[in-house]
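This entry is set out below.
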Amino acid sequence: MMTFNADAHFIASKKAHDMSSFSARPVRTLDDYQMMIALRAAVFMAEQDCPYDEEYDGNDLTASHILVFQNDRPIGTLRLRWFAGFGKLERICILEPYRGSGAVRLMLAEAFEFAARKGYQRLVCHIQARLWKLWSKVFHFHVRRERPSFSFSDYDYLEIDIPLELHPKAINADTDPYLLIRPEGSWDIPGVLEHSVAREKQSPKAA
């Protein structure tokens, strides 16, 4: 799906990664959704001992999610929520064997592309304070130092801003209506509703 310079948002890696077996996409189906739930349970609940009702906090059904795969195996996920003028990046996790593999960069690149295509030029994120130096080696962001740190679910957090380039194909109110009804993230591929145009129209009485 990459059509703008997602690489510009990342710190150059000192280690070359073979990315040929990795892919990323938005969650669109119930199967995808169950994969996302399972990955977060494995990382946040099993590894970090996060309580169930804090991990699944009531925001998942109103959010967008990204999955990253090695071949056909789901190995990581993140969540995006949408507000006026900015998106919020959350719940970033990768299964332990794949950390440091480059998969997280691919997943984040997909998220940045997804948000920018929707017209967003700013993401905010709450990162665990103990991990901000690690994340600073992955992608470009600004710590919001004028904002105080805060805590929830047993961890201290910092707020960061992630600026996004203006996408050359950002979706707006004047975008082709067929593009607007395509599946999320597949805006350049004709969707099922467009294919319905070829079907013979039913009479008003039959409808």
Notes: Strands lie at 22-26, 64-70, 73-83, 86-94, 122-128, 142-143, 150-152, 155-163.
